[in-house]
Amino acid sequence: MVYLSRIYTKSGDQGQTGLGDGTRVNKDCPRVTAYGEIDELNAVIGLLLLEPNVPFAELLLSIQHDLFDAGADLCVPMVANEQNALRITPEQVSRLEKAIDHYNEQLAALNSFVLPGGSKASAWLHLARTVCRRAERSVVTLMQQETINPQVMIYLNRLSDLLFVLSRTANDNGKKDVLWQPGKSRQS
């Protein structure tokens, strides 16, 4: 369990922060960047949940918990024979895949890319998707330097797909999607 009695410690005033294992690192190191972008994604989902009548609010709330798990996973470097570390699991990924399949079966196939928008909830979901993709790229950067739980990368990859599917669902199951028209604004 987490216990926070003081909010400011002054220990980061020189540009360093502590990882979950107590190691001190620079605040711009790839590990901190990766879990910081996951935290940003969580905040975007929190904003989306302020929208009234989000039909999949319970799913999004469970994803917020998963994102804290992913941040905790990345915050503690992997070591051989570790025990009790909070890590993203294949079951968490599987839950996303089931949600993708469930919501996607209600959508018509696309013949163009979808522009962010259509509805406010859909626009928030597209923003969450793009932040998720950025977090993925940061995790890839971290993976090139350190060993991490590969389930974090898989989870983020599935999550960005789910956020896309949910953005279409929020657009009246795709009926209000705004489709890209290549070259539409070019001068003739």
Protein architecture, described:
It is a single chain. The protein is mainly alpha-helical. The protein has a domain at 27-76 and 91-99 and 115-170: Hypothetical Protein Ta1238, Chain: A, CATH 1.20.1200.10. The chain has 5 helices and 4 strands, in the order E-E-H-H-H-E-H-H-E. It has helices at 30-48, 57-75, 90-104, 120-143, 150-169, and strands at residues 16-18, 24-26, 114-115, 178-179. It has a two-stranded antiparallel sheet. Strand 1 (16-18) and strand 2 form a beta hairpin. Helix 1 (30-48) runs antiparallel to helix 2, helix 1 (30-48) runs antiparallel to helix 4 (120-143) and helix 4 runs antiparallel to helix 5. The protein is elongated and about 55 Å long. The model has no long low-confidence stretch (mean pLDDT 91). One of its GO terms (biological process) is cobalamin biosynthetic process.
Tell me the strand percentage band: 5-15%
- If helices are DSSP runs of H or I spanning 4 or more residues, what is the number of helices? 5
The termini sit apart by: 63 Å
Helix content: 40-55%
What's the rounded overall pLDDT mean? 91
Q: Uncertain runs with pLDDT below 50, 5 residues or more?
A: none
| Helix/strand class | mainly alpha
The CATH topology name of the domain at 27-76 and 91-99 and 115-170 reads Hypothetical Protein Ta1238, Chain: A
Output the helix-strand order: EEHHHEHHE
**Order of strands in the sheet with the most strands?**
1-2
How many beta strands in the DSSP annotation? 4
For the largest beta-sheet, the strand count, sense and barrel status come to: 2 strands, antiparallel
CATH hierarchy, class of the domain at 27-76 and 91-99 and 115-170: Mainly Alpha
Spatial shape: elongated
For the record, what is the CATH homologous superfamily label of the domain at 27-76 and 91-99 and 115-170?
A: Cobalamin adenosyltransferase-like
